[in-house]
Amino acid sequence: MDEEYDVVVLGTGLTECILSGLLSVEGKKVLHMDRNDYYGGDSASLNLTQLYRKFRPDQSPPAELGRDRDYAVDLIPKFIIASGELTRILVHTDVTRYLEFKQIAGSFVYRDGKISKVPSTEMEAVKSPLMGLFEKRRAKKFFEFLQGWKDEDATTHQGIDLDKDSMKTVYEKFGLEPGTQDFIGHAMALYLDDDYITKPARPTYDRIVLYTSSMARYGKSPYIYPLYGLGELPQSFARLSAIYGGTYMLDKPVDEIVMGADGKVAGVRSGSETVKAKQVIGDPSYFGAGKTDVATTRTVETGKVIRAICFLKHPIPGTEDADSCQIIIPQNQVARRNDIYVAMVSSTHNVCAKDVYVAIVSTIVETDRPEQEIKPGLDLLGPIHDKFVTITPLYKPTTSGKEDNVFVTQSYDATSHFETVVEDVQDVWKRVVGADLVLKKRDVEVEA
Fold first, then answer.
1. Ordered domains of the chain (ranges, CATH)
2. What is the percentage of the chain residues whose pLDDT exceeds 90?
3. What torsion, rounded to 10 degrees, do the Cα atoms 170, 173, 179, 181 define?
4. Model's pTM, two decimal places?
């Protein structure tokens, strides 16, 4: 195992697999290792046996849940925005040939104790209970302003400078009520909290345009989701890497990151074997995440996320019997700082048995009673057949990696989509390669 690699990647989470796939396409010699015996790391999808082994090692899955192989339960719930950055990477790398997607049936928002559909058509907007008649007119003007905006044409700006004026200023210009601001900022721009309101409006404008263009692409909702669960995504990028010469080793413990006399990484040791590496990339769990000895760690904890994976025997009440949906509970509605998300998928996505629905409720932990914090989300689900709760620390790297060629990725945050994952991929790529990630069309069409 004395081979030398350009890059050794530790962990098969989606971030790491995208990076190994893209680096392999670039011609780098890549070795990918994971201590688990399955792909996906923290972003894996587990069958029933794996799920119970992880959460309740002393209990077997109950027979009434059906066959083990019918399940692919995501540990981290996220949907793909139809016109987002991850979609671009999937299309450009041709990874889409390994995947089949299905649309998420509806996006809902919680307001005044009940859930309402986020309008996906003009007709739905007119009928929506989210706004009164006059407010609908004001909101219509606001959306027309966003759709009509052209950077180079000052007549479309209505006196607004997106790069200087705050979102608060924009909302006030159109006289939008706090409830409408909540709906726009959290259910469309998909912010986790209200910090964005005092910042320049440009990123919010970009997010709303992304949401509306994704909505227009398929109708119903702006989200798509891979059949057989999110664990298919890292596996597909792993296949891309393998086609271009990448090597994969699962069930391989990582015992040491070996440093050279020059202070730069020299390799990775597993048991008695060591491979040489010019660069190492990995998820925080391989770099002392959770350890208190600062000398050994390259990460810092930035917070915690609570996620409750719930099995239901019925669709979520109030969602028009949707086979899949997202519900956003804006923080203002439940006196919190962070939103609560509910993501639900079902057997139509090949992730569970027929007549079973998988709903995952998640939020950023704010108190010492995390389960109490997700109660507003759990209360929307109706009777819960079974529930698995995790509280996961969030880590981000403390070093850029440029000094010693060890590059650490970030934990998966509480957002309901993959845009922040792609931002991390772009950030790590720039640190590893020294240039921005540019998606090039590949010359060769390789048949898998």
1. 4-65+74-88+227-300+395-433 (3.50.50.60), 119-220 (1.10.405.10)
2. 79
3. -10
4. 0.90
